[in-house]
TrEMBL record, chain A:
InterPro entries: ABC_transp_permease (IPR001851), ABC_transptr_urea_perm_UrtC (IPR017778), LivM-like (IPR043428). This is Urea ABC transporter permease subunit UrtC. The keyword Transmembrane applies. It comes from the Bacteria.
From TrEMBL, chain B:
It comes from Verrucosispora sioxanthis. This is Urea ABC transporter permease subunit UrtB. Keywords: Amino-acid transport, Cell membrane, Membrane, Transmembrane, Transmembrane helix, Transport. One of its GO terms (cellular component) is plasma membrane. GO terms for biological process: amino acid transport.
C-alpha cells in the first residue's frame, strides 16, 4: 500500500521496474492488457453470438449492462473505498433519459407517450420532458445527467469529509428518495410501472432479432471501452492516488493533495458509467422502472463486485455477470433458494473472502490491490471510522 | 391554528416512530461504529412476535403488553447471535459489516417469508388504542399514536437511566468514550459490546411491537424503515442519545410539514436535501462526543 506514497509515478514511468514488483512492469502490463482485450473482444463479438440463441444473447446484453455499473463500482469502491449503495440512481437517470427519448420518438412529434394519457390529466407534454425529444439532448444527458448529480452530491459530501458508513447511508438514501419521487409523480414518470413498451431505437424496430443483435454489439463494445477507460485510470498516477486515498486519506492530505477531488473524480466517473449502462439497458430490455433502480437493486450491483473482487479490473465484470446469470437460472425455479443463496454469498464472501473470488484464482496479481486482512491487532482499534474499510 | 397543532402532532408522532426505530441503532452504531443493516429485520422479528403471541393469547391488550418484553428478548437474542457469529470478526472493517449484515437481512426476510408467508399479516389493536381523544380546541389525537409516543418516551427515559446509573451503563459509556482505556481499566469490552447489542437489538423488537399498531406486518417491512433510522442516527451524531431524540422529532415534523405543503414523495426528497445541507454545516452530526481519545 505504502508503495504508492513513496513512488507515485511508478505506474506511468517507463523506467526499469522496481525489483519488488516484477509483475507490475509497464511493458508487460501493456502486453497482457492487449491480449486480454483481444480475447475479451473475441469472446463477446464472435464466440457469444455464434453459440447463444437470440434469447440468451439478449439476456447476456442485460448482464453486460449490469457489468458496466460494476466497473464503475469497482473504481469507486474497490479502488476508492467509497461504498456507494446508490448506483441505481445513476443507472436510473441514464435509463430514464434514454427511455424518455425513445418513448417520445415512438409517439412521434406532437403526440404524447401513451401512459401520460392514461394516468395524468395532462393536456400537453410537461416542460421537463420536452428537451428529451431531441437525441442531441437526450443522448449526452444519459451520461451527463448522472455525472452532474454525482458531482453535486459528491462535492458537497466529500469536501465536508463525510465518508465511510455515513457516505454509504447517504448514497442509499438518495436511491430511496429517487424511487419515492418517481413513484409519486406517476403522471409524468409512469409511477411504479416505469416507462415500458419501448418499440423503436433510433428508427430500428426492437422486436426484430437482427436489431436486438445490434444492440448487443453496441453494449459489448461499450463495455470494452469502459474497461479500457477504467484500466487507464487505474494504471495512471491518478489511480495510485485513489488507492492511497482509500488506504489513508489523512496521509494523502498531508502530502498536499486534495482527497475530496480525487474521490469526486472516481465517483463522477462511476456515475457516468452507471448512466451509460442504464441508457443501453433500455433498448436491450425495453423497460425502465423504479423496481430496477431502488435500494435493493443498488445493493445488488455491489454484490457482484464484492464476489468478483472489488479491487481488480475484471473481477467486478465477471462477478456481476455471474451473479446476474445465477439469478436468472435460479430465481425462476426456486425464488426462495436464490434469496438464501444471495444472502449467504454476501455474508461468506464479504466476511471471509474480502478480496473476492479474484483473490482465489490469482487474478489479483498485485498484492497491494487486495484489501488488508484484518489482523488480530485491529480488533483493538475498532473506533477508526475512516473511509477505508 | 388547529391545523398547525394537528400537523405538529402528526410530525411528533412520525418522530416517535423514527425515534423508536433509531434508538437501538444509535446505541449499537455509537458504541461499535458498525452499521447493522439487519436492524430492520429485528424490528420485523418484534412485529411477528406480536402476531404470534396474539394467535396464542387472544386478548389483544394482554398480548400486546406481553409482546413488549418477549419481543425485546427475541430481537435481542438475535442481535447477540449476529454479534457473536459475524460482527465481532469485522470490527476493523465497518463498511464490510454493512454488506454482511445486509446479507443477513436478506436471509431473515426470506426466512420470514417461508415461515409466515409472503402476504402481510395484521394484528388486532386493543380496544383502548383504536379510538381518538378529542383535545380542547377541536384537535383529535389517535390513541395508538399517543401510545407510541409514550412508548418512545419511556424507552428513552429507561435507556438514559440505564446508561446513567447502572454498572453496565457506566461500562458502556466508558467503552464508547475510550475503548482502549476502558480495556486497560479492566472492563471486559467484548462482553460489554455483546450486552450493548442485546439492548440495541431488543429496542428494535419493541419498535416492531409498536409498528403493529400502525400497519400490516410483512417480510420487507424492515427495509423500508432502516434508511430513515440511519439518517436519524447520522444526523444526530453518535455516542449520545440526545442528538437522536432531537433529530427524530425534527425530521418527523419536517416531513409532516413537507407532506402537508406538498406531497409525500416531494417531502421525502426535501428531507434528504435538508439532511445533505445539514451535514455541510455539521458533518459529524448534531452532537459529537468530545473525548481526548486519539482514535
Amino acid at each position: 500500500m505504502t508503495t504508492v506514497a513513496r513512488d507515485p509515478v511508478a505506474a506511468t514511468d517507463p523506467a526499469p521496474t522496481p525489483p519488488t514488483r516484477p509483475a507490475a512492469g509497464p511493458s508487460r502490463h501493456r502486453y497482457r492488457a492487449a491480449v486480454g482485450f483481444a480475447f475479451g473482444a473475441a469472446l463477446l463479438f464472435a464466440v457469444a453470438p455464434l453459440l447463444l440463441s437470440d434469447f440468451r444473447l439478449s439476456l447476456l446484453a442485460k448482464y453486460l449492462c449490469v457489468a458496466m455499473v460494476a466497473v464503475g463500482i469497482g473504481l469507486a469502491w474497490g479502488r476508492g473505498g467509497m461504498l456507494t449503495l446508490g448506483q441505481g440512481v445513476f443507472f436510473g437517470l441514464g435509463g430514464y433519459a434514454m427511455a424518455m427519448h425513445l418513448k417520445l420518438a415512438d409517439a412521434g412529434p406532437g403526440t404524447m407517450p401513451d401512459f401520460m394519457m392514461l394516468y395524468g390529466q395532462l393536456d400537453e407534454l410537461p416542460l421537463w420532458w420536452r428537451p428529451f425529444a431531441s437525441p442531441w439532448f437526450a443522448l449526452p444527458a444519459t451520461v451527463l445527467l448522472p455525472m452532474a448529480v454525482a458531482f453535486v452530491l459528491g462535492s458537497l459530501v466529500f469536501r465536508r469529509r463525510v465518508r465511510g458508513a455515513y457516505f454509504a447511508i447517504l448514497s442509499q438514501a438518495l436511491a430511496a428518495a429517487m424511487v419515492i419521487l418517481l413513484i409519486g409523480q406517476q403522471g409524468t414518470t409512469g409511477g411504479t410501472n416505469g416507462l415500458t413498451d419501448i418499440q423503436g431505437f433510433f428508427g430500428y424496430d426492437l422486436d426484430d432479432p437482427v436489431n436486438q443483435r445490434m444492440v448487443y454489439f453496441i453494449i459489448a463494445g461499450t463495455l470494452l471501452a469502459l474497461l479500457a477507460l477504467a484500466r487507464h485510470l487505474m494504471q495512471s498516477r491518478y489511480g495510485e492516488l485513489l488507492v492511497a486515498v482509500r488506504d489513508s486519506e489523512e496521509r494523502v492530505r498531508f502530502l498536499g493533495y486534495d482527497p475530496a477531488t480525487v474521490k469526486l473524480v472516481a465517483y463522477v466517473v462511476a456515475a457516468g458509467m452507471a448512466g451509460l449502462a442504464g441508457a443501453l439497458f433500455v433498448p436491450a430490455v425495453g423497460i425502465i422502472s423504479p423496481a430496477l433502480i431502488g435500494i435493493v437493486p443498488s445493493i445488488e450491483f455491489v454484490i457482484g463486485v464484492a464476489i468478483g473482487g472489488r479491487a481488480t479490473l475484471l473481477g467486478p465484470v465477471l462477478g456481476a455477470v455471474a451473479v446476474a446469470w445465477a439469478r436468472t437460472a435460479l430465481s425462476e425455479r426456486f425464488p426462495g433458494t436464490w434469496t438464501y443463496l444471495q444472502g449467504l454469498l454476501f455474508v461468506v464472501v464479504v466476511a471471509f473472502l474480502p478480496g473476492g473470488l479474484a483473490s482465489l484464482i490469482g487474478l489479483a496479481r498485485r498484492r497491494d490491490d487486495g484489501e488488508p486482512r484484518p489482523s488480530r491487532l485491529s480488533r483493538f482499534r475498532p473506533r477508526r471510522r475512516e473511509g477505508a474499510a | 391554528m388547529t391545523v398547525l397543532i394537528g400537523q405538529l402532532f402528526t410530525g411528533v408522532s412520525i418522530g416517535a416512530v423514527l425515534l423508536l426505530i433509531a434508538l437501538g441503532l444509535a446505541l449499537t452504531f455509537g458504541q461499535m461504529g458498525v452499521i447493522n443493516m439487519a436492524h430492520g429485520e429485528f424490528i420485523m422479528a418484534g412485529a411477528y412476535t406480536t402476531y404470534v403471541l396474539q394467535q396464542v393469547i387472544t386478548a389483544a391488550g394482554w398480548s400486546l403488553l406481553i409482546a413488549l418484553p418477549v419481543a425485546f428478548v427475541v430481537a435481542g437474542a438475535m442481535g447477540v447471535l449476529l454479534e457473536m457469529l459475524l460482527i465481532r470478526r469485522l470490527y476493523a472493517r465497518p463498511l464490510d459489516t454493512l454488506l454482511v449484515t445486509w446479507g443477513v437481512s436478506l436471509i431473515l426476510q426470506q426466512l420470514a417469508r417461508d415461515i409466515f408467508g409472503s402476504p402481510n399479516v395484521q394484528t388486532r389493536a386493543p380496544e383502548l388504542l383504536t379510538g381518538n381523544i378529542a383535545l380542547p380546541g377541536g384537535i383529535t389525537v389517535a390513541n395508538n399514536r399517543l401510545f407510541i409516543l409514550a412508548l418512545a418516551g419511556g424507552a428513552v427515559v429507561a435507556l438514559t437511566l440505564a446508561l446513567r446509573v447502572t454498572p453496565l451503563g457506566r461500562r458502556i459509556r466508558a467503552v464508547v468514550q475510550n475503548r482502549d482505556l476502558a480495556a486497560v481499566s479492566g472492563i471486559p469490552t467484548a462482553r460489554v459490546d455483546r450486552m450493548t447489542f442485546f439492548i440495541g437489538s431488543g429496542l428494535a423488537g419493541i419498535a416492531g411491537v409498536a409498528l403493529t399498531l400502525l400497519g400490516p406486518i410483512g417480510p420487507t417491512m424492515g427495509t423500508n424503515l432502516i434508511i430513515d433510522a440511519f439518517l436519524v442516527v447520522v444526523v444526530g451524531g453518535i455516542g449520545q442519545l440526545k442528538g437522536t431524540v432531537i433529530v427524530a422529532f425534527a425530521l418527523g415534523v419536517l416531513q409532516a410539514t413537507g407532506e402537508y405543503l406538498t406531497t409525500l414523495s416531494v417531502a421525502k426528497v426535501m428531507v434528504f436535501i435538508a439532511i445533505v445541507a445539514f451535514l455541510q454545516w455539521r458533518p459529524q452530526g448534531l452532537f459529537t462526543l468530545r473525548t481526548r481519545s486519539l482514535a
